[in-house]
Every structure is written in C-alpha cells, then in structure tokens.
# Entry
Amino acid sequence: MPLQSRQNYDTLIVGGGLVGAAVACGIAATGAGVAVLDGGDRDFRASRGNFGLVWVQGKGADFPAYARLSGVAARQWADFSAELEDATGIDVGLQQTGGYDFCLTGDEWQQREWEMRQVALHTGGEFEYQMLDAAELRQRIPEVSGEVLGASYSAADGHVNPLYLLRALHQRMHDLGVNYAPGQVVQASRRHNDEYVVSTLQQDYRAAKLVFCAGLSNQRLCRDLDMHIPVQPLRGQLLITDRVPVFLPAATLQVRQTREGTLQIGDSHEDVGLDESTTLDVITRLAQRAVRIFPHLAAVRVNRAWGALRVMTPDGVPIYHQSAEHPGAYAISCHSGVTLAALHAREIANWICSGAQDSLIAPFSAERFNV
Ligand SMILES: Cc1cc2nc3c(=O)[nH]c(=O)nc-3n(C[C@H](O)[C@H](O)[C@H](O)COP(=O)(O)OP(=O)(O)OC[C@H]3O[C@@H](n4cnc5c(N)ncnc54)[C@H](O)[C@@H]3O)c2cc1C
# Structure
C-alpha cells in the first residue's frame, strides 16, 4: 500500500537506523502494521559509521544486567544472521571466531582482568574468557609486537559488516510489509485518546503504539511524551586501509580485518558535541597505536577515515523505556546497536508487542536516572 494513502498503523517507529529497523522487523513479523518514519541523509547516523563488532568483553562490568543482556544478544547472532540471509539473500559477513583486546600497559592489564572477572561473575560463569600473556598471544597471532603485554580473549565476540546488516534489515522490513518512509522528519508527537499522533512536515500519522529509535534525537523527541532520555554524542574516528593478506584470526577491539581484506582501525572516544569531523591528531594516534601492536602495518596505506557520533547514555548502558504516563510509548537508545541487533528484533520487539515487562529488559528503564 503506498504510504500516502495510509496514516493509521498498529505501531509507528521513529528512526530507521540499526535499532529502529531491527525492532520494526521483529514487530512486523507478528503481522502487525508497522511504519518507520526516518529522517534525512544529513542526520547523525551512528548505524552508518560504526566499527561492526559483536562484543561482549567488559560489557556490564559494573551493571550486572547489561553483562547478561550482552551475552544473550551475542549468543543469538549466528542464528540471527542465518535467518536474515535465508530471508533476504544478504550475507552480513558474521565472523564470530572470538575477540582480543590488547594490553599495552600494566594498568590496562589490571583493569581488563577486573572487568573480565566481573562479567564472568555477573553471568554465573556463562561468560568465559582468558587473559593471555605475551607468549600465549604471539602463539595465536605471531604478528603482535613485543611491546604488547598480553590480551584478554573471549570466544563470544565477533564482527560483521555493519552496512550489510543495515541493508539486510531494510530488505527484511520491505519484505514484511513495513512502510518505510524516508525524509519524514518528525516534528512533534502527542497522545489523543487511545492513539498517538506523530506530525512530520508533510503529514500526521496515527498508531496505537509509538517507538522512538531516533538515535541522538531521542532526547528531544521523547520529551513530548514526558520521557526523559538523556543521550549525548560521543565521537569515534575510524580508519580503513588498503587490502592486506589475512593475518587476524579474530576481531580485536583495536583493529579488525574485513572479509574483503581491508583493515578497519578504531576508534576514539571524544566528547566534542555534535561534530562528526575527522582530525589529524586522532587519525595519527589511531594509526600509531595500530603499528605499535602490529609493526608490519607501518607500510600499509590508510585510504579513508571518518568520524561518527555514538548515542551514549550517562552510564553507557542501553535504555529500554516505556512511558509511565503514556503506556504504549517507548524509547530505545543504545551504543551497541550491532551487538544487540538480534535482541532488538526478538526480545525487544516481543516486549513492545505484548506490553509485558520482561525481567531481562526491566533493569534498563530510564527511571534509573531519576533516583
Ligand atoms: C564510531 C562508532 C563505533 C561503533 N562501534 C560499534 C561496534 O563495534 N559495535 C556495536 O554494537 N555498536 C557500535 N557502535 C554503536 C552503533 O553504531 C549504534 O548503537 C547504533 O548505530 C545506533 O543505532 P540507532 O538506530 O539508535 O541510531 P542512528 O543510526 O543514529 O539512527 C537514528 C535514525 O533516526 C533518524 N532520525 C533522527 N531524528 C529524526 C526525526 N526527527 N524524525 C525521523 N527520523 C529521525 C535518523 O535519520 C536515523 O536514521 C558504534 C558507533 C560509533 C559512532
């Protein structure tokens, strides 16, 4: 049905990035009528600028429910990517062969060891890890330099091509009958009787349920329905090199080798507001760190760099929030939209469809910021 001829849906989703698209697929798979109102190409879009890791290591070291949630999400990935490929023909390039996080100083080693222990503790030992000393590490990856003291390793980690993931989710939305409406910049939302009315510059849309997945815009848009969603930008810069012969057996937090053979080098954490630009000093620092870890990369050419803004909550943990005043209005914000994609298409979509509070998700309400 063409978008303009219909304005009433079971569920409206604002934002068609990795989060909105995954949730839309999950809800539409139940047969509900879903529309996704997405903004324009000039919006900030973390989903188009990220590192592509499916990462559990260290997540939730000081927030036990997040450690459990990340583990659940990562375990679903193999099945989820197979399901996406069956449905869309798009292989998102999942390589879940583990992940390494290198330690260059004693302080880093101690901090990492503590984080790994905490995550294992919070998950009742389900999260398994190893702290590898320099010799053990070089047995696995001989190219690692003598400057590296060791690394943490977890078999749960991996990586995907995040742009193929976004493409597959959009293809799936289309196949499930979701009305995806780009260029529909939401201006305001209100509740009218039993439905929500969302206004874009072009028209109003109505639905029984409304889910805000608008990345950094969630903070502003959710205020209309009395939801306080305190997200802030945190810039990351990333580099892409020429193709090099395969040498990495798994993902690492500092460098990942794409299936095509290029290296993606990441990433910085910069509190610079709404500024997506790249800077020579950070690019240089990232490249130098990669060479400190893998000296043979000194001769490899960097051919692209970009900056993108993370959608950060004050505690770095996702927000899965339903408005207390306006049941049926939800906000979803996170800075690990790749890692959590399967969970968003499954548990989060089920929660929104059923309205029932799920114990896995309950700790992530934005109410935690109001104490
Ligand atoms: C440098 C960097 C590295 C990262 N690395 C990883 C990683 O390795 N692994 C991982 O799991 N995650 C990673 N992330 C995080 C991941 O990219 C995000 O969690 C995810 O992309 C968030 O998706 P989103 O859909 O919430 O937001 P976005 O991608 O920002 O999408 C928001 C959407 O909302 C739309 N929108 C905004 N305002 C409006 C409006 N008013 N009306 C209608 N639509 C609107 C926008 O157009 C956009 O399409 C990284 C992020 C960055 C920046």
